[in-house]
Amino acid sequence: MFEIKNVSKQYNGEFALNNISFSIAKGMNFIVGASGSGKTTLLKIISGMEQDFDGEAYYCGKSVKQLTPSEKSYYYNNIFGFIWQDFNLLEDLSVLDNVLLPQYLKNNQSRKNAESILKDLKISDLAQQKVKYLSGGQKQRVAIARELMKNPRVIIADEPTSALDEKTAKVTMDILKAISKKRTVIVVTHNTHFIDHTSNVISLDKGELVTSPQEVVTTTESLKYDQRHSLSVKNAFALTKSTIRSKWGRFGVSALTLMVAGVLCLTTVSGAIGDSSQGEFDKLIDTYGEGLKDISVVGSFMSAGGTDGKQEEKPNANVTQNIGGLYAKYVDDKRVDFIAFSQAFNDIKVTMNGKEFSIPSTGSAPVINKLVAGKMPTDKANEVVVPDGFVQTLGISNEQAIGKEIHFSSKIYNWDTGEPVLKDASITATIVGVADTTVYYEYEGKVSEYSVTDSFFFSKVALDDLRRQAEMKNENINFTIRAKTPADMISIKDELNEAGIVPLGRFELVEDIVRLNAQTIEQSGSANAIIGILSVVIVIAIFLITGFMRTREFAIYKVSGFRNLHLGLLNLTERMTETVTAILVMLIASPLINVATKGLFSINLFHSNLLFTGVPLIALVAVAAYFTTTIAILNTHTIKALKTGDR
C-alpha cells in the first residue's frame, strides 16, 4: 500500500532521513525511534504534508509528491485519518460538531453514524459537551471518532498516547489495534511498550532505517475517486452557524467592527465633518434672511456708510458707474438664483377683479427676502412678483394669488434731467410669485426688521414698458443679483470689481464664511481621508489578528479535507452573516448613533437617505475583512500550525 524508495530529507544541511526504503501494508504499523530520529518527518512524507524530499513515496501507486491540492484535500477527507498527540480538536465546538466536521464536505451529514461511533467509543453521553471541558483520554477518543467518520483506509497517529496516563494510553492503543483489523494504522511513537508480535515495526535512528517489516508489499490497490468532495453553500452556512454558536464573542466583535467602520466611512461620505461652515452660514441666514446673498448693482450711490450698518470714518463720495449690459450677462449665470429689478414706485394703486387697492409708500428701495410662493418673472411676458402683505389684503392665500391678473398704476421718479420728476405709468400684469419683503438690519448689536410693503418686481418686458411711459431714456436699471451660495456671491462680486463696478452687499460678513469654508474643506478633506483610512485599517487589523489567531483552526480544517477554496467559501458565509448582523445593529442603534454624531458634528447622521447609504458601506468594509481573512487562510502552514514535532 505504501512504498518508500530511497527517501532522504535534510534540514539545514543535516539529514532527518537518509536514503530509507520500505513498504507498509494493512494492519498495525509502528514507526519508532528516539526523539530527533526522523519519525515525524517520515510521517509528514507518508501523509503528503511534506512534498519536498529526495526519493519517492507512493500510496497505492500514486506519488505523494505529485498530489495536487485538490487530490490532497480528497485524501484527507476520505482516505487518510489523523490522530495527534495534542488532539487538534476545535475546543469550543461540541463533541458531536467536531466529529461531524469532515462530513461538511459531503452531500449528507450522517449524524446517525456519528452517534453510533461515539457509542462504540463509549463517549455518546458527551455528544453535546464542549471539547475544552473533557479529559485528555476523552479528547483522544473524540479525535479518533472524528477520523472514523471519514471511513478512511489509513489512520496515521502521531504520538497518540504521549499526553495520556498509562491506563488511558492502553485504552487508546486497544482502540487503534481494533481499527487496524480492517485498515492500515501507522503509529509514530517513542514508546515500544504497546508493540506486540503481530505489529509491523519501522525503527529509525538518526535518520537511518534500523529495522523494517520483513514482508514486502508487491501489489497495490487502485484508488477510485467515487465520493463527492465539495463544500456546498448550505453546508458552509451550517458550519458558520456552528462556529458562531461556539464563538459568539468573536462573532460579535467582528460584526461590531464592521458596523463601526461603516459608520466612520458614512461620516466621510455624508460630509458631516465639513458642514460646520455651512452651519455658521445658516445661522446668519436665520438672522439676516436670504437677502444676505444679495448683490446690489446700481448706477450711482453715495458711500455714506458701511454695508453692515456701521458708519465708516472716511469722507463721503458719490459713485456713478455704467451698469449697462450687466443684467444680460448674469441673467442666465449658473451662480445666480434670480435677478430682481430695484425699481421704486410711488402712489401705487392696484386693481384686481374690479376692486382697487392703495399701497402706502415706504420710501425704501424694493426688497425681496425670499419667495414664499410661485417663481420669479421671465422676460417673455408682463409678469410680476407681489409682496405677501398685499396678498393678505386680498384675503386669499399666497398660492391662490398665483395666476391672478392685476392692473398696476403708479408714479415713477424720472431723474434724466438731474432733478426728480414724477411720471405716471401703468400696466396690466399676471402675478407669478409672492415674496417675503422683510428687511433685517443690525444696529448697536441688535438685529431688527421691517417690511417693505410696496416692493413689486416686474419682468424686464413689463418694466421697460413702465419706464417708457415715464419717459425714462436711461437704460441703466438698478437690479439685485441673488447668488446661490456664499462662494458664488463673492465670486460675482470679484468679477464686478475687476470690471470697475462697485456692487453693494454684506460682503465682509459673507467673505468670513467663505474663508472659513475653504479652510474647513481643506481640514475636513484631511480628516475624512484619515477617518476613511482609519476605518479600513481597523477592519484589516482586527480581521488580520483574528485570522492569524485562527491558523490552528484552519489547519484542523485542512487535515479534515478542507482546501483553500472550501475555507474561502466558509470565510464568505461568515463575513456575509457578520455583515447582515452589522447592518441590523446599525439600523436598530441609529437613534443612539444620531445622539453621538449630533454632539460631535452637530448633525443627525442617520436620516432616511444616509441610513441606507450605510448599508453598502458596511458591505464594502466587509469585503476588506474577507480578503484580510483570506490572507490568513492562504498563509496557514498546516505542519507549523499543528506543531507536529521537530523531526
Automatic annotation (TrEMBL):
Record domain ABC transporter: where: 2-231
Species of origin: Cohnella soli
Coiled-coil stretches noted in the UniProt entry, renumbered to this chain: none
Keywords for this protein: ATP-binding, Membrane, Nucleotide-binding, Transmembrane, Transmembrane helix, Transport
UniProt GO MF annotations: ATP binding
CDD domains xref list: ABC_MJ0796_LolCDE_FtsE
Protein name: ATP-binding cassette domain-containing protein
UniProt-listed Pfam families: ABC_tran
TM regions (residue ranges): 251-273, 529-549, 579-597, 609-634
The keyword Ligase appears for this protein: no
